[in-house]
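Table S2 (text version). Query chain:
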Amino acid sequence: MIERVERGDTLVSRLPLSKLSFRWQITLLGTLVLVLFLSVLFSTFATLRYTKSAVLSSEKKQLIAITQNLAREYDDKAEFSRQNKELPPLNNPAAASSREVLTLLSRVVLQSIEGVRGGFYSKTGDTLLGDSLSILQVPAEKFDRENTPGDEQRVLLEVARGAAETHQPSEQVLSSTANTVLVEAVPIRDGYSIVGSAWTVKRLGVLPGANRFRAYLITAGLGIAALASVLMTLLVIRNLQGGVRKIEGGLQSLEGNLASQIDSKSDPEEIQRIAHAINRLGVALKENSQRERQIESQLRHAERLASLGRLVAGVAHEVRNPLATIRLRVQMCRRDTDNANVKESCSVALEEIERLNGMVDRLLSFSRPVQLHLEPADLRNLVEERMESFRDWALKHRITLTTDLPRNDLSMQVDKDRMAQVFDNVIQNAIEAMSERGGTLFVTLASMPVKPDNGNGVSLEFRDTGRGMKPSVISHVFDPFFTTKPSGTGLGLSICHELVQAHGGDIRVDSEEGRGTSVRITIPVLHA
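Corresponding structure-token output:
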């Protein structure tokens, strides 16, 4: 069944063959070509065999051989007559014994050959003798008048006479709509002279090569086989070219978009396998590209942190010594003065110095590599302690602290002070985000699978109902020195990120402006 699919201004025939695999297409095509070759070979032999000229040539060869055999039999008989000092039969055609001998001789030679009649021609009497179908001599003008067309008797006599006169074999073909008659004659010698000839006649009927309808059938069959072979060849080539073009187009699409896919449902099995491999390659390249971009981003972040760390370490060291001197001088001034206003100013100055000193400590902590001092610690108790330390401050700002902690202990190997630093920073940020209008801070601690190769872990979530953050802010919350607070340093969450990663964990921030912020910390568990 042929489907037609319009492509531009042309119509392309599509057969179900296009859905077969190339292996089956090639097998089918090879089979068809073999059949075509055998058909051509058979048709060639059949055509050569059934042509009229081929049939006549074959019949002539057979008939002239029979005629020559008849002539040789006469030569033997004539030699026997000469040995008996008698005239050979053709030299004495008028004798009844000669006619009887020739008739008997032709019957003996031709009796086993179907459809062939024959005899002899005497040049002396210019007459035909020894008809194999008659025991009597029949004059030439009366020869086979009942069974032979009117001109056959004349032709037979002319052929026999021609062979005797020219000393060469002679033949004649008589054709009509009903049949074909073949006449052959060979000369008979008596020493150096020609005494007559031996003749044979065969009625062939309708020649097989004359059947044009059979020739037409053979030609038509050969043409159909050739056309089918060419069509199958074109279809296989077209399918192969279509598959190659589709693969080329898919590769070009991958150059611009690694997510592009090649649709090959209607193609052969081999093209489908290649297309699926290209699709998998595109997916793998896309995933690798994304991983490379993530790694590159992490490397850039690490490089920035390293550069900032070196800068911060230098600045912190330079600031710490002047701060120590200032603190000492302010303390001495407060001790030596009796003025209440001066003492109050000195106290305020000392508080600011302590704040600056704390900032310097954080800067130095940020610049130094993280070194953990792991020890068994119960995270449940650690969370409760840190929450309790902020409870008074939270009540002052109308903030409720709520915890959902498991009843059993969650003991694990952590740096307790470092984890306390992380919790304090996250709790402080949450309270500051809700300090204007109050709210609630929910803290949830639970055991959960963290990574397939690390077994179970803990998940700790701090969720507040504060003002939230914009997406542009969330993407930079872990960057050093990035802050939205008027008096913040921008190192709190950056240091938390480094500390959590040093424990092999992960920290994520989800926030929506006007709906609060959620900080989720996951740490793999190492049981004590």
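Notes on Table S2: The two ends are 75 Å apart (CA to CA). DSSP finds twelve helices and 14 strands in the chain.
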